[in-house]
């Protein structure tokens, strides 16, 4: 005679198989809702590069809103790539929120770099707790709503193996959804960012000696 537990097992097995899909769908819906104020860009970019003035303005607004803990208004300064990972965007945002809580009030812009339809802002941030510097690259693209920071891209000067791995993961992600022309432009911007970062690291080191 079949027990009640045996009768329930097929439906339980079915539920367990459905659960990961449900959780993934739920997470995606939650991420989509949280990122509702961002602009979604469908590659390839075709609106030309933003001006240095517009890019610097949206960068300053983004950072100021993060400092004020106004996350949704900060996200209104951002864009994400269609076909990309919303989870990745949330990770980058979370990293930015945690980081800015420890940063000095002033972000030092090393330079802006324009290649193709992209503009990069090479930045030095300073930790108030550890006294160390970080060198993120903020990528800015034009959208129908104006210049926006790409919140789903996280590239920065690598000071350790962990950051090198994260940079590689970002490039792998970008190469899956962007055309070669954009990848070439971004790599040229990043190469210049690394040069600017290394030059600044040397300069800061000399002033501390």
Please tell me about this protein's structure.
It is a single chain. With 209 residues, this protein is of the alpha+beta class. 54% of the residues lie in helices and 20% in strands. It has helices spanning 4-34, 52-67, 71-75, 86-100, 161-177, 180-208; strands at 39-41, 78-81, 108-115, 118-126, 133-134, 136-143, 146-150, 155-156. Strands 1, 2, 3, 4, 5, 6, 7 and 8 form an 8-stranded mixed beta sheet that branches. A hairpin with a 2-residue loop joins strand 3 and strand 4 (118-126). The longest helix is centred in the first third of the chain and has 31 residues, at 4-34. The radius of gyration is 21 Å and the shape is globular. Mean pLDDT is 88; it is low at 2-10.
Notable traits:
single chain; 209 residues; alpha+beta; 6 helices; 8 strands; globular; disordered N terminus
**Rg, alpha carbons:** 21 Å
Number of helices: 6
Helix content: 40-55%
Kindly estimate the percentage of residues that lie in beta strands according to DSSP.
15-25%
Q: What overall form do the CA principal axes indicate?
A: globular
Number of strands: 8
Helix and strand content put the structural class at alpha+beta
- Major pleated sheet: 8 strands, mixed
Query: In angstroms, what separates the terminal alpha carbons?
Result: 84 Å
Query: What order do the SSEs take from the amino end to the carboxyl end, as H and E?
Result: HEHHEHEEEEEEHH
Low-confidence residue ranges: 2-10
- Average pLDDT taken over every residue: 88
């Amino acid at each position: 005679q079949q027990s009640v537990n045996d009768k329930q097992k097929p439906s339980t097995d079915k539920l367990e198989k459905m659960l990961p899909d449900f959780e993934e769908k739920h997470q995606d819906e939650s991420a989509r809702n949280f990122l509702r104020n961002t602009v979604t860009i469908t590659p390839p970019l075709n609106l030309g590069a933003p001006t240095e003035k517009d890019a610097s303005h949206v960068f300053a607004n983004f950072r100021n809103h993060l400092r004020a803990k106004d996350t949704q208004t900060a996200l209104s300064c951002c864009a994400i790539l269609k076909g990309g990972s919303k989870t990745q965007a949330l990770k980058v945002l979370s990293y930015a929120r945690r980081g800015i809580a420890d940063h000095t009030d002033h972000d030092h812009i090393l330079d802006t770099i324009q290649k193709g339809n992209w503009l990069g802002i090479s930045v030095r941030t300073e930790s108030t707790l550890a006294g160390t510097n970080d060198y993120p690259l903020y990528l800015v693209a034009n959208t129908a709503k104006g210049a926006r920071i790409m919140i789903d891209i996280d590239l920065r000067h690598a000071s350790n193996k962990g950051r090198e791995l994260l940079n590689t993961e970002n490039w792998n992600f970008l190469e899956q959804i962007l055309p070669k022309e954009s990848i070439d432009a971004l790599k040229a911007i990043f190469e210049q960012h690394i040069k600017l970062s290394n030059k600044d690291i040397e300069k800061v080191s000399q002033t501390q000696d």
